[in-house]
Amino acid sequence: CKPTEINARKRKGNKRPEPEPEPPCRGSGQRRRTAAAFPCAEMEHLELNAVIGFAGSVVDGIILLPDNRSMVFALGSTIVKRDIVDPKNQQFLQGHSDRITCMSLSPSGRYLASGQVTHLGFQADVIVWDMDSLEIVHRLRLHKVRVEAVAFSHNDKWLASIGGEDDNSLVVWNLETGKAVCGSPAANDAVHDVRFARHNEFVIITAGKVNMRVWDFDLANRKVRPTDCNLGKLQRTVNYIYVDENDEYIYAGTATGDILKVNLKTKLFKHIGPKTRIPQGVICIDRTPDGQLLVGSGDGTIAVMDPETLKITRSTKIEGGGVTCIAPHVSKQLFFVSTSLCSTYVVKYDGLQAELRSTCHNTKIHDVVYPVGYSELFATSSKQDIRVWNARSCAELLRIQIPNLECDCITFARDGRAIVSGWSDGKIRAFGPQSGKLLYVINDAHVGGVTAIACANDGEKLISGGFDGSVRVWRITAESRVMLGSMKEHKATVNCIKVRGNDMEFVSASSDGSCIIWDMRRFARNNSLFASTFFKAVLYHPDESQLLTTGTDRKITNWDAYDGSAIRIVDGSTAAEVNTLDISGGGEFFVSGGGDKLVKLWHYDEGQCQAVGIGHSGTVTKVVVSPDQRNVVSVGDEGAILIWNIPERFAST
After folding, report:
1. Residue 649: in which H helix or E strand, if any?
2. Does a cis peptide bond (omega within 30 degrees of 0) precede residue 66?
3. Collapsing DSSP states into helix, strand and coil, what is residue 74?
4. pLDDT in tens, 393-439
5. What pTM does this model have?
6. How far is the C-alpha of 508 from the C-alpha of 513, rounded, in Å?
7. How many other C-beta atoms lie within 10 A of the C-beta of residue 31?
8. 3-state secondary structure of 129
């Protein structure tokens, strides 16, 4: 029995001969056969072509390395080392179990420290990485729930870390042994930042909500002894600490938009400025080549300030949220800036001229789709926006924004003249793919939001599914949008809709544990598939003899499209639900992704996982195979877009 014979039998009336007494084949014809996914270690790994995304919320989240060719940045629970000139030259540092909250590079450039957040009641790790081998040197585990900040001493001997508000302790670590030397409660209120003095390894500065302390690190007695800075009547929440080159003054950026200047030796307040406060607070501070202060604020303002008078000499404002990172380039001509909404800029010191370098999603991505038969671009949907990307250069070509709404699903019209999208307010909106202009709106398409959408092959019909479980068919013309039929058999959210090639049938997958095959002419049910799962995805094999489904039971199931019987059940994951499926144009392979953060490529007929893509740091929400079958694009919870190369043996077919 061969897989091709099974597909042929289905097209001939589904009559199955009796099984012959020979060893079972590896094809898809063994009824109710269950096959486990192979361990990732034995799998071929999918080659990562490019990554679009970074964590803009991490303060000092982009670090330029001393080799002047590379940068590191956080992306979810992963740290990415990337070539500055060639964005596709990337390496990944994976060891954290949850989102990274802080990063710091040692003065020599040898070590990188990163801290994370975790669940209540659990310990949050600080990981020290060797930047030459990209291996973990130490995993430091003392803080609870969250690591707020980390800092190295000037000689790379010590690491100081601050816990989040559930922990709020200062710990000093020995980098040779990876052991904690000493620790202490950092303050009565939350502490936000920690720094070593630039030339003294035994002086540590911490600051936060109405507190600023200079600590004496007593190595002999293994103690840290605090001295509160005298700020007089001033009460400020400090976001960021900057120590000048000579260890003379501390500059503390506050949430109220001013900077405190404090003498490090006497711990006495000296000056505050500017008089006109910087909007939405000071988030980061660095210095210009001529010794002035370079300040980034919560409203996107970049200001140059005199370190003596704390007056602003010049400033500029960039789009894309608050400035969370300022990374000076070794050329002393420019610096990199990252924002809280995940945009990066290159800014010249001379005139503060800002040029947008890259941009990406800053929240969960719901959907990704290619136009029919065109592999040069793809579109993604997220909270408040739809973005169109160049698949080769990874540049953003178009952004469509609707404030305070969430775009749950998108598709391209068959002729490519419209991007059709479903939104959380229950409306279907169509936009021009080049201009982003709104073409039409279908009001009140579904109650509670539009969660699935598909275009028929004739270019006239549109099928949508909603949060309320209803499935509706629309006729779309230049003049009008008319509802042709409404089917309400699903009892829960419709997650996926796929249309058959001849437009006679379509199938919908729902969280109520059913997939229903609908007749497009009668708007009635032809057949239904049931399983103990929330169906997340469904698709037709290209020859339309079989259906493929997956869901929260972690199974990938092949169904007979004619009688709705299960043909084969494969374990799609051993750890978490499978959220998404897509199949190649020829049907030789399909791709899956889900809560285990892996992208898996499967041989269709054998039902075995052939390759695994490791790179996501959050749940994989959607995968799609490019029409030319050279790439797979996957998107996830952390806002990342990963582009994978399909192995040659599959791409060639």
Report:
1. helix 648-651
2. no
3. strand
4. 888 899 999 989 999 999 999 998 999 999 999 999 999 999 999 99
5. 0.80
6. 11
7. 14
8. strand
